[in-house]
Automatic annotation (TrEMBL):
<keyword id="KW-0547">Nucleotide-binding</keyword>
<feature type="binding site">
    <location>
        <position position="163"/>
    </location>
    <ligand>
        <name>ATP</name>
    </ligand>
</feature>
<dbReference type="GO" id="GO:0008289">
    <property type="term" value="F:lipid binding"/>
</dbReference>
<dbReference type="GO" id="GO:0003688">
    <property type="term" value="F:DNA replication origin binding"/>
</dbReference>
<dbReference type="InterPro" id="IPR003593">
    <property type="entry name" value="AAA+_ATPase"/>
</dbReference>
<keyword id="KW-0446">Lipid-binding</keyword>
<dbReference type="GO" id="GO:0006275">
    <property type="term" value="P:regulation of DNA replication"/>
</dbReference>
<feature type="binding site">
    <location>
        <position position="165"/>
    </location>
    <ligand>
        <name>ATP</name>
    </ligand>
</feature>
<keyword id="KW-0238">DNA-binding</keyword>
<feature type="domain" description="Chromosomal replication initiator DnaA C-terminal">
    <location>
        <begin position="366"/>
        <end position="435"/>
    </location>
</feature>
<dbReference type="InterPro" id="IPR024633">
    <property type="entry name" value="DnaA_N_dom"/>
</dbReference>
<dbReference type="Pfam" id="PF00308">
    <property type="entry name" value="Bac_DnaA"/>
</dbReference>
<dbReference type="GO" id="GO:0005886">
    <property type="term" value="C:plasma membrane"/>
</dbReference>
<keyword id="KW-0067">ATP-binding</keyword>
<feature type="region of interest" description="Domain I, interacts with DnaA modulators">
    <location>
        <begin position="1"/>
        <end position="96"/>
    </location>
</feature>
<comment type="function">
    <text>Plays an essential role in the initiation and regulation of chromosomal replication. ATP-DnaA binds to the origin of replication (oriC) to initiate formation of the DNA replication initiation complex once per cell cycle. Binds the DnaA box (a 9 base pair repeat at the origin) and separates the double-stranded (ds)DNA. Forms a right-handed helical filament on oriC DNA; dsDNA binds to the exterior of the filament while single-stranded (ss)DNA is stabiized in the filament's interior.</text>
</comment>
<dbReference type="Pfam" id="PF08299">
    <property type="entry name" value="Bac_DnaA_C"/>
</dbReference>
């Protein structure tokens, strides 16, 4: 039995929010903390039957709560400890009212949301991995899902090369918006399916004609994937415009994905292009090394297959173009391992399979190409590294050259010293050791050296 004993829950939570606003950025605050509601201070019982006071908060959904705990538990704990001074606990439950509305909606029309949304359960924020190359897009996407239809995010144009996560991110917005706002009608449609619906509708001479436009015009959040598929299809574009304009004027949320930036989207009606040019642009780039590693490690862990770190690293380094390509390689390896005699994947197999999809460049790496690549990365000239100056901005790149020459070539310490205009080969030995130690501790340096290596290998 939970008996409210104090009305001060709102005030306590407001104090927490003030601290959270100072401790985090506005987007995180809006996405992860604003949707939390304070219920009040209640008396709760622990497993031993002992009572304690708790500030009870409601999160809008189970998924939301899990992700909140995964990503922001430390911050939340720090802030609530500071406000509550250890005198009461914090309990976060899923808001029963939202859960009830969700169940009622499903009961009214079984599978109503799945039917109208066509969203895939796997394409969620929780399964969309983050790194520097997509962080900003991810934050904007989360903010859109928290408050669909709110300017300036009410029309999102997500673009980037094929296979980098545009569909995943747009569907994740739809999924999260449905969890937070179960009353919303959400629908996802690819441009090819939209075109097929349009053709079917045009051929229909019966009473149902035109219903597909009306169907999409009822949506609160509409996702149209791969809009470039409508290029040159004048009549389908007109239908799209009718839907778009209707939703836009009503302040609904529209998300469009495209594999080229608007400037390269030739063959679309001018009135559509002028709308697109006013959209909030969200660019997703090719996955960087960190993201490629992260995705591969997750896929390997999910599969339960034994795949050494060396193999993961090899795939991550040699398949930089898109996530779909990475997923294809890992799926192939996993399947091979299931049918192989040893039941596991080794480097030879990894090389064979990756080599079948991409060309693994065998470009020669020499001390001079290393010197040039390091200088390019640090914005220096090779001659600057050959001077006697020991200034830190020269000493570090110089040691990086020493380290990479040792790692990637068979050149002696003496020859490396000569390359850098040093008399003593022990300077090179010391430089190599220094970098070996630092990359264990300095993530940025490690990342930079990896990028230089990839560049040298032609990636
Ligand atoms: N950051 C990410 N974290 C996890 N999985 C990702 C990520 N980015 C992409 N993927 C996965 O990569 C695959 C391709 O992504 P998606 O279909 O969203 O690409 P796309 O950019 O829409 O491609 P296209 O332009 O060809 O339609 C999907 O399986 C998706 O789940």
């Amino acid at each position: 039995m939970q008996t409210p004993i104090s009305p001060s829950g709102d005030t306590l939570w407001q104090r927490c929010m003030l601290l959270l606003a100072q401790a985090t950025d506005p987007q995180t605050l809006q996405t992860w903390f604003t949707p939390i509601r304070s219920v009040g201070v209640e008396q709760r019982e622990d497993e031993k039957g002992e009572t304690f006071d708790a500030l009870v908060l409601y999160a809008p959904s189970e998924q939301f709560l899990n992700t909140l705990m995964e990503r922001h538990f430390d911050l939340l704990k720090q802030v609530t400890d500071s406000v509550l001074g250890g005198e009461m606990e914090v309990v976060i439950d899923v808001d029963p009212e939202i859960a009830r509305r969700q169940i009622a909606r499903q009961a009214l029309s079984p599978k109503a949301q799945e039917y109208t949304s066509h969203l895939s359960a796997d394409l969620r924020f929780e399964t969309f991995y983050e790194s520097a190359c997509n962080r900003e897009a991810l934050r904007i996407a989360e903010a859109t899902a928290a408050r669909p239809g709110q300017a300036p995010l009410n029309f999102l144009f997500i673009y980037g090369p094929s296979g980098v996560g545009k569909t995943h991110l747009s569907q994740a917005i739809g999924q999260r918006a449905m969890e937070l706002h179960p009353e919303l009608r959400v629908s996802y449609v690819s441009s090819s399916k939209f075109e097929a619906q349009f053709i079917r509708d045009s051929l229909n001479r019966g009473p149902g004609r035109g219903t597909f436009i009306g169907f999409y015009q009822q949506m609160d959040l509409l996702i149209i994937d791969d809009i470039q598929g409508l290029i040159g299809k004048v009549k389908t574009q007109q239908a799209f415009f009718d839907i778009f304009n209707h939703l836009y004027l009503l302040g609904k949320q529209i998300i469009v994905t495209c594999d080229v930036p608007p400037i390269d989207l030739k063959g679309m009606e001018t009135r559509i292009m002028t709308r697109i040019q006013s959209a909030m642009m969200l660019r997703i780039d090719r996955p960087d090394l960190e993201l490629r590693r992260k995705i591969l490690q997750h896929r390997v862990a999910e599969s339960g297959v034994e795949l050494g770190e060396e193999c993961v690293e090899f795939i991550a380094e040699n398949m930089p173009d898109n996530v779909r390509q990475l997923e294809g390689a890992i799926r192939t390896l996993i399947t091979h391992s299931k049918y192989s005699d040893q039941g596991k994947v080794d480097m030879a197999m990894t090389r064979r399979i990756v080599g079948g999809s991409v060309s693994i460049d065998q470009r020669e790496i020499t001390p001079n190409t290393i010197l040039e690549a390091v200088c390019e990365s640090y914005g220096l000239q090779p001659d600057q590294l050959r001077t006697s100056s020991r200034r830190a901005e020269l000493a570090l790149p110089r040691q990086v050259v020493m380290y990479l020459v040792k790692k990637l070539t068979n050149v002696s310490y003496k020859a490396t010293a000569k390359l850098l205009n040093r008399n003593d080969h022990t300077t090179v030995m010391h430089g190599v050791k220094s970098i070996e130690g630092r990359i264990e501790l300095e993530q940025d340096l490690k990342q930079r050296i990896t990028e230089i290596e990839l560049k040298l290998k032609g990636r």
